Amino acid sequence: MKKYALIALIVLMVPFMVFAGGANEEKSEYVFATDATWPPFEFIDESGNLTGFEVELVPLIGEAVGETFVVENIPWDTIFAGLVNGQYDAVASGVTVTEERKATIDFSMPINNQGQVLIVKTEDAGTISSIDNLADGAKVGVQIGTTGDFALESYPVEIRRYDDIGLAIEDLLNGNLEGAVCDSLIAADFVLKNPNYSDKLVVAGEPFTAEEIAIGVKKGNTALLDKINEGLQILMDNGKFDELKAKWGII
What we know:
By secondary structure, the chain is α/β, with parallel strands linked by helices. The chain contains 8 helices and 15 strands.
């Protein structure tokens, strides 16, 4: 009887032993989600490749701490839900640190500071010199669910939400909007670097928000967060972080 009781006990213990071993097992790679519609942070180049500042930064952070960090392109409207649900390990997608997001996300040290700006057509720059010059009810485009979207709720404008900020820019050029709002660095890329837009668009005034950009992990994942911060500090100390920012024109 004791023999059979011992066998039964072992059988009952096996699932718990497997589960415990899996929980402590080191991951072979960590997946970082990004929405590749925000140059120069993350975008798809003319050859169809995923690239940009954060796309190159993430693997460098991994190398610095002896881990494999990879980046996958994920739509913005599902990116935070996927993080919370464990579909990937982190989000590196020009994410602004907000109090609301801190409820479910822990953030790394900042990787950049920026703000929201208003883009208008060059021909309208004489009458629209800042977001405060927009007429009540003016149609303003923004990518849905971004901090630009949230910031616009404080202004008496008609908010037009898009899945991609590029679609808002196109609607602005087609005369369907009076302006478009996005991060200052994204705006600089559209207005200053894109030859298709540089003579047609301008940034109206200074940024009207102040934001920190950081990498996010699921709340409570201190092990991964410590690795990210350690890797970032190494890159900042050895100069590779500044080199990468200079490569992508990030101030």
